C-alpha cells in the first residue's frame, strides 16, 4: 500500500527541482510515490526529472500543456494512489528526512484527515522562522477546531487523506494566482478540525523570483481573495477571516487600484470583496475596505502626479537606514535606487538570521546606530502585523525620526512609473 503521494507541479524549475526531489527521496517513510506534473516547462526541467524517474521507480512524470499550477495539482490528486496526499512546490524542500513519517504516523494514530506542522523560510541561504504573522507557529501539539484556527499558514505543511479530498470534491480552483488558499480553507471547513504538530516540516524558498503580473493574474488573485472571505464567513472560520482582512492592503491593493483603472472586471471584484468585509473599516489605523469607483481613479492620478511622500521626507535627512531585511525591505531599497536615494545600511534586531547584504546594502545590527540615533531617519519596512513590535523597539532605543513605509503606495508608485 502506498502511504503518501507527494504531488509536485513544476514550471521551469531546473535550478531548484533537484534539491526538492532529493529531500523527498531521502524521507524515511516507506512506500511513498512522487507525482511530478510538468506544466509545460521550456527549460531542461523535464530532462532532470526523467533522470530521477529512471533511478527511482516510485517517481512518475506527467506532462500537461501550460495551464497553471492549480490544474497541475488537480491532475496529481486524481492520479494519486496514496492513503494520504502531500503537496510541494518544486523550488521548496522538506526540512528534515523524517517529515512524512512523522506526519503520517500522527495522522494514522489520531485518525486525522489533515495533519500538519510548521513552515520555515529560506532567504539568502539562511533558514529561519522570523517575520511570521501571529498564529503561524504551532504553540502546542494537538487538535485545532476550525473556528479556532488562527491564520493562513500554508497548505503545503499538511498531508491530506486521499479519500477525504475526493469524497468532498476538494480541488484547486482554475485561477492563475491564489488557488491554494481557497483550497486550504475549504479543506479546514470540511474537516472541522485538524491536527498540528510543533515541528518545522516544510521549507519555503523566498526572494528568488518575481511575479510578472498581468490582468489575468490579478483577476485570479482577486477572485481567490473573494472566495477566501466567503468561505470563512460561511463556515465559521472567524479568526482566519479577521487575520485575512487585516492583510489585504499592500501589494494586493496596489494591484487592484492600478488595474481597476483599466478593467471593469477588477472594479466589480473590488465591490464584491468589500461586500464581504463587515468588520469596522478603520481600526487602530488599519484599513479594511477598498476604495471604489471614482475614488480609485483620483487616488491613482494623485500617485502619478505627485512625488512619493517618502522621497520628500528622505531629503530632509543626510543619514538614513532601513529597518527590515525581508521582502518589503528589499522592495524599498529597489525603489530608492530608482529615485536616487542612498541609504547607509539595513538595520535588523538579529544579524544571525539575516544575510550580510540586501540588494547590495550592508545589513547591520540596529544597536550599531544607537549612539547617533537622533541623526538618523529610520525607514521601517515591515508588514503591519510586525509594526507595533518594531515601534516599541525603536522607541526603547531612542530613535525618534521614524517613518513607516506604506507598501501599497510604494507598489502603486512603481507600477505607474514602469508603465510610463
Question: What can be said about this structure in brief?
Answer:
The chain has 420 residues and is an alpha/beta fold. The chain has helices at residues 17-25, 45-55, 69-79, 99-110, 162-167, 180-191, 215-235, 238-245, 251-260, 264-275, 294-305, 309-314, 327-338, 384-396, 407-419, and strands at 4-10, 32-38, 59-63, 84-87, 93-94, 114-123, 126-128, 142-145, 158-161, 193-206, 282-283, 286-287, 319-323, 345-348, 357-358, 361-365, 376-380, 402-404.
User: What's the CATH class label of the largest domain?
Assistant: Alpha Beta
Gap between N and C termini, in Å? 59 Å
Uncertain runs are none
Q: Report the helical percentage.
A: 40-55%
CATH H-level superfamily of the largest domain: Spore Coat Polysaccharide Biosynthesis Protein SpsA, Chain A
CATH architecture verdict of the largest domain: Alpha-Beta Complex
In DSSP terms, counting alpha (H) and pi (I) runs of 4 or more, how many helices? 15
What's the average pLDDT?
Answer: 92
- Could you tell me the radius of gyration in angstroms? 22 Å
Number of strands: 18
* CATH level 3 topology of the largest domain: Spore Coat Polysaccharide Biosynthesis Protein SpsA, Chain A
Structural class: alpha/beta
Largest sheet: 10 strands, mixed
Instruction: Give the DSSP E fraction (strand runs of 2 or more residues).
Output: 15-25%
Q: Characterize the overall form.
A: globular
Amino acid at each position: 500500500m502506498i502511504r503518501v503521494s507527494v504531488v509536485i507541479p513544476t514550471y521551469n524549475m531546473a535550478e531548484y527541482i533537484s534539491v526538492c526531489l532529493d529531500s523527498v527521496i531521502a524521507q524515511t517513510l516507506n512506500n511513498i510515490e512522487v507525482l511530478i506534473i510538468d506544466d509545460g516547462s521550456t527549460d531542461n526541467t523535464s530532462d532532470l526529472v526523467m533522470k530521477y524517474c529512471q533511478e527511482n521507480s516510485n517517481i512518475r512524470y506527467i506532462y500537461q500543456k501550460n495551464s497553471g499550477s492549480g490544474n497541475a495539482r488537480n491532475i496529481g490528486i486524481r492520479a494519486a494512489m496514496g492513503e494520504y496526499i502531500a503537496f510541494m512546490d518544486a523550488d521548496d524542500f522538506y526540512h528534515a528526512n523524517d517529515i512524512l513519517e512523522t506526519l503520517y504516523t500522527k495522522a494514522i494514530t489520531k485518525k486525522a484527515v489533515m495533519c500538519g506542522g510548521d513552515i520555515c523560510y529560506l532567504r539568502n541561504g539562511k533558514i529561519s522562522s522570523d517575520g511570521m504573522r501571529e498564529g503561524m507557529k504551532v504553540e502546542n501539539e494537538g487538535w485545532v477546531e476550525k473556528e479556532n484556527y488562527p491564520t493562513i499558514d500554508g497548505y503545503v505543511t499538511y498531508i491530506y487523506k486521499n479519500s477525504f479530498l475526493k469524497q468532498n470534491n476538494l480541488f484547486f480552483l482554475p485561477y492563475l494566482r491564489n488557488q491554494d488558499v481557497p483550497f486550504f480553507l475549504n479543506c479546514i471547513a470540511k474537516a472541522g478540525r485538524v491536527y498540528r504538530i510543533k515541528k518545522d516540516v516544510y521549507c519555503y524558498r523566498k526572494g528568488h523570483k518575481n511575479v510578472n503580473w498581468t490582468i489575468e493574474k490579478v483577476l485570479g488573485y482577486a477572485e481567490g481573495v473573494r472566495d477566501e472571505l466567503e468561505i470563512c464567513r460561511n463556515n465559521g472560520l472567524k479568526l482566519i477571516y479577521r487575520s485575512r482582512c487585516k492583510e489585504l492592503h499592500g501589494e494586493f491593493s496596489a494591484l487592484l487600484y492600478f488595474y481597476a483603472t483599466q478593467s471593469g472586471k477588477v472594479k466589480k471584484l473590488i465591490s464584491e470583496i468589500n461586500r464581504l468585509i463587515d468588520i469596522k473599516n478603520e481600526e487602530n489605523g488599519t484599513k479594511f475596505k477598498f476604495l471604489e469607483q471614482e475614488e480609485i481613479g483620483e487616488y491613482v492620478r494623485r500617485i502619478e502626479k505627485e512625488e512619493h511622500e517618502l522621497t520628500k521626507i528622505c531629503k530632509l535627512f543626510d543619514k538614513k537606514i532601513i529597518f527590515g531585511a525581508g521582502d518589503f525591505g528589499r522592495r524599498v531599497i529597489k525603489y530608492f535606487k530608482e529615485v536616487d536615494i542612498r541609504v547607509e545600511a539595513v538595520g535588523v534586531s538579529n544579524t544571525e538570521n539575516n544575510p550580510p547584504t540586501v540588494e547590495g546594502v550592508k545589513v547591520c545590527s540596529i544597536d550599531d546606530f544607537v549612539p547617533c540615533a537622533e541623526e538618523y531617519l529610520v525607514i521601517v519596512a515591515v508588514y503591519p502585523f510586525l509594526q507595533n513590535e518594531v515601534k516599541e523597539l525603536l522607541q526603547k532605543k531612542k530613535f525618534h525620526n521614524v517613518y513607516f513605509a506604506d507598501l501599497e503606495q510604494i507598489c502603486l508608485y512603481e507600477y505607474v512609473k514602469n508603465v510610463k
